[in-house]
Amino acid sequence: MSSDAEMAVFGEAAPYLRKSEKERIEAQNKPFDAKSSVFVVDAKESFVKATVQSREGGKVTAKTEGGATVTVKDDQVFPMNPPKYDKIEDMAMMTHLHEPAVLYNLKERYAAWMIYTYSGLFC
Question: Ranges for the Myosin motor domain (predicted)?
Fold first, then answer.
């Protein structure tokens, strides 16, 4: 990843391309439990962030960010990427590259006006 000084060459566009160094350091220091942090299928939002409460017989019970407790099939649960990958511009670098992770990343980037992204060798 480039430092803020290296990104200065992009001038006013830099904040729209990549998170600042300060934001990246803060994201790396956020507490994160890789075993329980997941996305679950949701009828209204497609996918929502959740924390796994239990796994039993092919079913997963999780508590969503909204506070609801849901039980879904095991194949409707997707592992979440660590916070250091939030708003990442090259999605091929993500630990977990699946539909909810890509959609979440795009949503977060667009909300921050960081509209340019790519995945791997091709833009």
Answer: 86-123
Query: Given this model, what pLDDT does residue 2 score?
Result: 61
- 75: CB partners within 8 A, 6+ apart: none
Q: Where are the alpha helices (DSSP H) in the chain?
A: 4-7, 14-17, 21-28, 99-111
**pTM attached to this predicted model:** 0.78
pLDDT in tens, 68-95: 999 999 999 999 999 988 888 888 889 9
What's the order of all strands across the beta sheet hosting 69-73?
69-73, 59-64, 46-56, 37-42, 77-79
Residue 41 CB neighbour total at 10 angstroms:
16
- Can you identify the CATH homologous superfamily of domain 35-79? Myosin S1 fragment, N-terminal (2.30.30.360)
